[in-house]
Every structure is written in C-alpha cells, then in structure tokens.
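Notebook B, p. 112. Complex prediction, attempt 2.
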Amino acid sequence: MLPDRMIEPGTLEAAGDRVRISIRMPWYRALPFSSVAGVTWTIDGHEVSADSLTWTCDGTTLPLAALGERHDLWWYVLDSAVVEGDLPAGVAAGGEHDVAIALGLYIPYITTDLGVLRLEERDRKPMQLEVAA
Amino acid sequence: MTALGTPVQGVTLYSFTRDFHARKHSVEDLVREVAARGLGPGIEMVGFQSIQGFPVVADGYVDWFQGLIAETGLVPTCLSANADAGLRRDRMLTDDELVDYMAPQVEAAARLGFPVVRVQISLTPDDMQRLLPLAEKHDVRLGLEVHSHQHPKHPRIQALLERYEQLGSHHLGFVPDWGATLREVPATLMARYRRDGVDEDLLRQLVAAWHEQDAEGAPMTEEQHGRWFRQVMGLAHQHGSGDRGIEMAVNITGLFGHAKPEDWLELLPWAVHMHGKFYEIDASGDEPSVPVERIVGLLVDDGWSGSISSEWEGFHWNDWEDPFDVVARMQALMRRSAEDAGSRLVTDPDEARSVLAAHHRRS
C-alpha cells in the first residue's frame, strides 16, 4: 500500500560487524508481529544474512525467525521497526549505498482462495552508511 | 409511498491515512480538520489505526476522545473493527477464538460512543448470532462490511441475510462498501502505474481483464475469484511486472467489485451504516469509477437515512492530491446527487444526531 515509506531516510548505521536500518509499515493499521512473513535486505546487492536478522519494535527485540509465533505483540502503524544484521563483507563503511528491502506481510483479515493474503512490498533508496561512534 | 431518505454526511479518518502514516497529522489534528472543513458531521475511525494498543482503550483516552467530540460538535458514526481470523501462522482462529477476539473491540466502540461497529467477512452467521447478546448489552449495532470481492448476492452475504431475518434483531446488519459496485477501473491507478514505468500493453490488458470479469459478473465462489486473481498475476509476470503481480491482483480483483448498484437494495433494510468508498473525482466533479450519483439516488428513493462515511481509498496510489480536498469534492457530488433525487444530505450536527437516533432506534 505504501511501499515507498518503508525505508526511513537517514537510518542506515553500522556498529562493529553489525548494520541496522529503520523501517515503517507499508500498511494502514497495527498488525501483529506474526504478520511479518520475512525481510530480505540487500546493500549494494549483498544480502544481509537472513539468519543474522533481529527485529526491534515497541521495546522488544527478537530474532526475525521468531516473529511468526508472536501474535500477542503488535507493530503499531506509527512505530518504526529496527532491523539489524551482520554487515555483509564487501560493503565499505561510509559513503552512499544502494539499499533494498523486501517485506513479506500477512494481512490477517483478508483470505482468498490462495490462503491468508501475503503481500510482498519492496522499497529501494540510496543511503549514507553512518558509522556509530 | 416511502418518504425520501436523508442520509447523513460524514467521513472516515482512513481517507487521511497517507498524512497520518507520515506523522504529519495526529488523530486530534484530523478530527479538528474534519470539523473545520465541514467534512462531517459523521466521523468514523479504524480502531487498529487510530488507537495505539487497541482494543485496549484507557479510560483517559475515552474521556479525551469524548471531550474532542463535544468540542468539535462531530457525531461518532462507526468504529471499524477487524476480524483477524488469520492472526496466527500455524492455523486459522477457531470460531470461539474469533468471537472472543471481537468482544473487546465491540466494548471499546461502545465506551467511545460509536453506535455501529463495522465487522468483517470472516465472521459466520453463527459468530454474528453469538455476538448478538454483547451488541444488545451495549446497544451497539454490528455491521458486517459487504466489501469487494464479496457483494450482496454472494452466498456468504446471503447466508448472513437469512440469519438476520430469522433473528430479527436491529443490532445485526451490514455496512455496504461502494467499492463492491464499480463501473470502471480508476484512471488515477493507471496514471500511477504509468508514472512507475509499467508497460502500456500491460495497462491495457489489466483494464481489459477487469471488463472481461465484469461481463462474467460478480464472483459467486472463492474459486472464481482465485482464478481471476491468478489471471491478473499471470499478466503482470508476462509483462515484466511480476514483482507487482500481487498488488495488481489485489487491486483489480480485490478492490474493484462488479456488483450493480441496484443489488444494494436487498440489503438496505439491514444497512446500519455505509462506506462511501471512492477513488477519484474528475474535473467535472463526477466519480468515474464508483457510480456515486446512482447509489445516492437509490438510497434516497428507498428512504434510507443512515450515515455515509466518505472513504477515499485513492491514497493507495495517489500521492499528488490533497485528501481533504478530494473528500470535499466527493461530498459535494453526494449532496448534488441527493438534491437531484429530490432530497438532501444531512450536514447539521443536531439534525444528524436526531436522524441517526431514529435510524438506530435509540431514544
């Protein structure tokens, strides 16, 4: 619905061997963490390892793979979520980078012949990679 | 002869999602702006959008909201709840769980002063019957939204209608969403796809697919809708827009319904509130995709005097128009349409309260 809102400008930051970015929900209402079907994140075409990703929202940090079980926690529509993972080898700190995020999102009240509707929203923006002090 | 209807004008804050999501306007800003621009008096909101932590609503929030309503003179019409049957990844919610999931939302609506709770298609006739005592207890009306790809003649809607007629309670009903009765694919969506570089041949084929499906008639089975959905995804993949295939299929087969405006008549005795869904207003002041004039004419002729929330969904793709202006132009179209039908829309708050009290059978 609002995919170009996902990547929040000015939020790409490296700290040691980790990198994080802030994302907004591409939908109009709060959704449970269990609606997050997956995140695919690349920097200059290098994938941030899916196994290394964590998700921080509303004061809770979880491995991305654990979100599916958490239908008791909510991503409010005005809240940012911080995604963090291992900085891919080959991505130099500093300077501008081509950042792409794909977010799978289940919409829990819409079911079709194909099951619960699963959207795949994409955003891509050039971003400065800041290095945390 | 039935007296002509005088529907009540209003708006849902969902129309302003783009500005709210951008943190440009808070709920309070939106409510005040609606009042200042005369886009009420009816006001609707989506619980899971406008209220953080919903369906938990603190007493302080209730006091604040009711104070804001009193100050602005607006009239709460409907709180939109969600029937999130697909909440879990391992399975769908059971009927028991879904009924339990709805209960706090219904209670929140009552505490906030909304006479109607919009609920959704995942609820079966049995679920609605089980929620009836709660609705009676709080004197709120549960309106199951008839939203594309469902429509008045869809078997699931007909099954609900049959149950409503058996139970005979005015606490159960429908919220017709005008998106179920389109006459054309919105031109603004095609303009946005064009701006995004989508292949012209694909745009032609998307419109052609919608018209082919329109000729087939509104879908009566999930299989039929699923076939259409896959057809549109297939077109997107064939034309190099596979990454937008789901979005295109949701738009073409999920938002732009094929029922006829006259189909609403069967549901009007049970229409507790309406979503005046629309996508665009052209230079002549008409809505080329949603037949607003025809629908308002039918409501007036049938003597229907409930609340209509102008619901602008063009914001999904339209980032170049001001939502408040678009809503104002749609409401001008509704007022003209009611006048052309020999009646009018209610815009005065006191009259709206009185008309809606009669519509909801509240003394």
